[in-house]
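Methods: example folding runs. The two proteins below were folded one after another, and each record is reproduced exactly as written to the output file, sequence line first and structure-token line second.
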Amino acid sequence: MIPKHLEESIAYLKEKGFNRPEVGIVLGTGLGQLVNHLEEAIEAHYNQIPFFPLATVEFHSGKLLFGTLGGKKVVVMQGRFHMYEGYDLLDVTYPIRVMHGLGIKHLLISNASGAINLNYKKGEMMLIEDHLNLQGGSPLAFKNVGDFGERFADMSRPYDASLSKIIKDIAKEESISLQEGVYAAVVGPQLETRAEYRMLKILGADAVGMSTVPEVIVANHLKLPVAAISVLTDECDPEHLKPVDIAEIIAIAGATEPKMIILFTKLIERL
């Protein structure tokens, strides 16, 4: 990690008008509608930002937006990076460090994932209360990590308890069904086998996806309070497994997203 690269990325965005955002938001697969709720939005495409990676997944946009949501200044990452695109974990989490450098005080993350817990159904949302890092690496495993924070970051409570409580309160007030559970992060891009779904269930996972955990680790490294919500887009029952339809996953994520937008917007209003 080269500090000068971060400084140049941050300086470019500040020059564009990304001034002192309070909240950072990472949007997952099929979850891009939130940007339509931003007021006075400014955007910067990833290919314009010095040293920023480029999104390569066809259904992920590639831009950073700045604007007002819930009465607060926010910076929104529309299109994230994944290990399965060939990026290393430093690239995957680079935007989190940039948003932190811009001044965010809280980080909100969304993703689309598969339900391992068969009591959870596609189209529901799950508040992540803990995770399993099964991606085979750490975004903190680099030589000068001590220049950016403590090398041995504490992960005893990776998801901020106060943010999670507010989200649960809002869900109850708005009559929004919200599950809670453990998210397992795998590399992908292939979907899991029946045996792998059985393994994940034994390990204690309630949902599985290919993102989020690296960003959460870096947020904890930066002592940045973080909350994350999974939109459950398919049911991973190894005894009745059918081929996954990516188009259906995108459609389910899009149909569920308005509820997620309510949770995030009302949370931001209360910060």
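Second run, written to the same file directly after the first:
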Amino acid sequence: MKQFTISILVFVFCFTTYGQVKVNPNGKFFNYNGTKIYYEDTGNGEPLLLLHNFINTADSWKPHVEVYSKQFRTIAVDMMGHGRSDIYKKDDLNFRHADYAKMILALLGSLKLYKVNAIGASSGGTTLHYLNTMQPDRFKSVITVGGLIYHSKQLREWIAKTGLNQLMEWAKYHGPEKQEYLARVVWESRKLYGDASFTPDILNTIKANWLVVLGDNDVAIPIQLGIEMHQNIPNSRLWIVPNGEHLPHLNPDIQPEFLRVSLEFLNGKWDKKD
């Protein structure tokens, strides 16, 4: 549970008051089918999309943006129902990553970004699987951290063990309405099947260079699932992070190494390795 605690602490410090997230100077809003979506546009260069994990915000990428924006134009998004972004379907707890993916495609289109690098954490990584199977030619290099291609038994057991009360506690900084929504979406997902559900033939259509990142102590995603991703995504590499849990990129002890490795990969240096 240590890694989850770290991610929540990073998240809490991003808020000014209960349920209110600060709009940063480089923050902007995008209207998606009447739903207000917040994103931050920083730096210049090739676009680098940053998608956070569930019950977090774009602010979790702040230390990464400080580094990445020296080389890339970073686009860090508050996913629907998180932080400064509105809830998309308030009465629908059957959360679908495909809805996230469609929103991101609309945002990229509005920004006229057509060849994109991307990093996604957990749920953000799963969204990248959808994006890259919907539009395989849209993405150049992709890194997923603790992403999944299906809900494993291990993940369902972790959600059940965590419990709704703990999920509510983690989500409270989004404000009462979003707290209830986000916690219940995660809670109900332990019973859902089909999101995500990526078979080998679907993963084989992905064209981007891909780095699968997984902590060796991940309590939610088994290492075997990461191996399956690596085996079935054509141009992929696998990095099992020693002493890493579900979100190793947020661990202050691992973060410098993650930044180094991710920049190497995004800059194409791994393309020349065996």
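Comment on the second run: The radius of gyration is 17 Å.
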